[in-house]
Amino acid sequence: MTEEEYKQLTIAWINMRQRCYNKKHPKYPEWGGRGIQVCSEWRNNKHRFITWSLLHGFKLGLTIDRINNDGNYSPKNCRWVTSEVQNRNTRKNVFLTHGGETLTASQWAKRFDMDRSDVAKAIKKGLSFEQIFKKTNKK
Fold this sequence. Notes:
A hairpin with a 2-residue loop joins strand 3 and strand 4 (101-104). The termini are far apart. The chain is α+β, with helices and mostly antiparallel strands and 139 residues long. The protein contains seven helices and four strands; from the N terminus they run αααββαββααα. The strands form two sheets. The protein has a two-stranded antiparallel sheet with strand order 1-2. It has a two-stranded antiparallel ribbon with strand order 3-4.
């Protein structure tokens, strides 16, 4: 493991614990305030977290992601992913299904070469999929 990898993993471990247990942390309400915790295996043992990470897909530039956003940080509920994947795995995402395919509103916007904010506004107005994406028929 390089010094840079060790540093990134240490920062991830510290930040994970801060979000869950430090009530003064700006992100605490969305993590610890919702009851999200760090498993006992990782909470007070950075080296176990680092070992798990190295054996389960960690690479520089990836971020720790909870598969189930309502679940705790634990080996069974975490993975190392790109920022793009992590941004699709958030409680704030809106999913739309069309033609048997389910994607986030942002993914549909990209597919139809539309601005995400325009799609979000249309969804808030209650427009249907067909109304939102009628301008183009790209796939």
